[in-house]
C-alpha cells in the first residue's frame, strides 16, 4: 500500500504577517527557508520513490532543498494539492477580515463549512484532495509537499472522520510531516526541525 508523506511548506512571508493566503501568497521567509533545509535533512531517512507538489511558490521553495540533496527523483506538480481557495480573503490580515466580516469568521470558528471570501468550502477541498491522494498508487512512498488545509482534510479522510471532522485536527505546523496510507493515518503534524 502506498504511503504518503505529507510535508507542509515552510513559513511564508504572509504566514509571518498573519495574512490569509489560500491560493495566493508569497515565497518563504528566512525562517521558512531554514525550516525547508531542516525538513530536507530529516527526510533523508525516508525511502521516497516520487514527489508530488502543489504549484504554489511557497511549496516550490520548500521542496528545493530536498531536491538539491537527491540525485534524481520523479516530481509531479498537481494543482489539486493547492491550499483551499479563500477568495477575497487572500492577502488580508486576520484582524482586517474579522473587523469586516465577524459573522463569517465566527461561523467558521464554530465549525461551519463556509466558503471564506467566496472561495471553497472544506467539503470541496476534501473531495479534490482525496481524489488526488487516490491517484498516487504506483509508488511505495511518495513525498507530497503541500499546505495545511490539504493535510488536514487528507488526514480526516484517512481516519474516516465525517464531513467537518478536519476541524478537530490542529492545523499542521510549517514543515511538519503527516504520514498516511489511503486506509489510515500513520502520524500527524510531526516537527522536522528544531524550530517549533
From TrEMBL:
Database matches in Gene3D superfamilies: Phosphoglycerate mutase-like
Protein's name according to its UniProt entry: Histidine phosphatase family protein
SUPFAM superfamilies hit by this protein: Phosphoglycerate mutase-like
InterPro entries linked to this entry: His_Pase_superF_clade-1, His_PPase_superfam, PG/BPGM_mutase_AS, PGM_Phosphatase
Domain of life (superkingdom): Bacteria
Listed CDD domains: HP_PGM_like (cd07067)
